[in-house]
Amino acid sequence: MARSKCPVCGSEKFHVKNPDDQYDIYEFECRDGEVCFEEDLADEECPQIDENTETFCNTCAWHDKFDKLK
Ligand SMILES: [Zn+2]
Fold it and tell me: Ligand 1 centroid to 4 CA: how many Å?
């Protein structure tokens, strides 16, 4: 199982921001290109992540489009 890593620090944990609330973040790992959220989120609560979604590293200051993680 391949996990995506941050290109800068190698962390496997990332998050995206809620487009409606920049202080609300959703943490996830990326396994074989699949987004796996850490918390138990109901389907309707999960943010839609596509290749253009701004994705942030949990550990360092890296952020870029989700597409760059693959
Ligand atoms: Zn990083």
Answer: 11
Give which of 70, 4, 51, 56 is closest to 26, Cα–Cα: 56
CB distance 62 to 9 below 8 Å:
yes
CA of 33 to the centre of ligand 1 (A): 17
Q: Tell me the whole-structure pTM to 2 decimals.
A: 0.86
Tokens of 59: 């550990």
Strand order in the sheet with 63-65: 34-37, 21-31, 14-18, 54-57, 63-65
Per-residue pLDDT of the chain (70 residues; tens, 9 = 90+): 799 999 999 999 999 998 888 888 999 999 988 899 987 777 777 888 999 999 999 999 999 999 998 7
Measured in Å, residue 45 CA sits from the centre of ligand 1 at 25
